[in-house]
Amino acid sequence: MKSWKRGRLLGSGSFGQVFLCCDMETGKEYAMKQVHIFSKNSQHCSRVLSALREEINILKEGVKHPHIVQYFGCQDDGVVFSILMEYMPGGSVKDQIKQYGPLTERNTISYTKQVLLGLEYLHKKSIVHRDVKGANILRDNEGNVKLSDFGASKRLQTISNSIMQTQTGTIYYMSPELLDGNGYGRKTDIWSLGCSVVEMLTGHPPWHQLENFAAIFKIVTSDEPGYSLPDSVSKQARDFVSECFTRSLERRPTSSQLLYHSFVTRAQFEFDGT
Ligand SMILES: Nc1ncnc2c1ncn2[C@@H]1O[C@H](COP(=O)(O)OP(=O)(O)OP(=O)(O)O)[C@@H](O)[C@H]1O
Fold it and tell me: Can you give the residue ranges of the Protein kinase domain (predicted)?
């Protein structure tokens, strides 16, 4: 990564910043996520760093899909850990909502289908994304989206010394089983996808009006997540979201099953008149 030059700041997250950067040999642009390393001399931190390097090398070689942001490598100089990845010029779906407001149903269908294809690919490889949300669905300039920030991001949190380390905002996308201490599984991503579809259609995930602690309580104890979709939203969309919010893990559908849901399959003929 010798010939890289760092460009403008693309955005900041809970524990790092993402910069545009350019390979001066080829002129190709990439995104570089940088995290300041906390207590780099501690044994724990160096263990996490080497696990992170290993993980990114595996992701770089073994995870390639049109709806997954590609990792290209990583480096650290003892102070900053940098991950080089595919540049998505449209920013995130969260950025889109911030700038233009909630998405139309048609746009939501298109993004949801693409995210499902990415999730199906990851899940078939036994990879759980763990952080599906609008901020991690990145856009090109032509209506295509890709999932970013999987796997490695939890380790980045461990090595980071960011004052924003508490992942504010992420709690709203977490499933009841995760908050109950039963860990992550593929079905957890499906719950978070449901939250992301609510975010696309309304601008916010369920329970967004509550503080973190109150939101956790509601997610764990309520039969139905707290959201209300606009009147114009179709029955298919409502049914898709409530399927994602099935509390029983066995009954909650998989990404492959959801790809056959009428919400995503009807897009072509209903909207394009074909
Ligand atoms: N590959 C990329 N291409 C273009 N922009 C990106 C890319 N990755 C991230 N960004 C921009 O940088 C912002 C910060 O990304 P980052 O992954 O650090 O945090 P986040 O996912 O928004 O939040 P959190 O860290 O809480 O999960 C994103 O919201 C997006 O606008």
Answer: 4-264
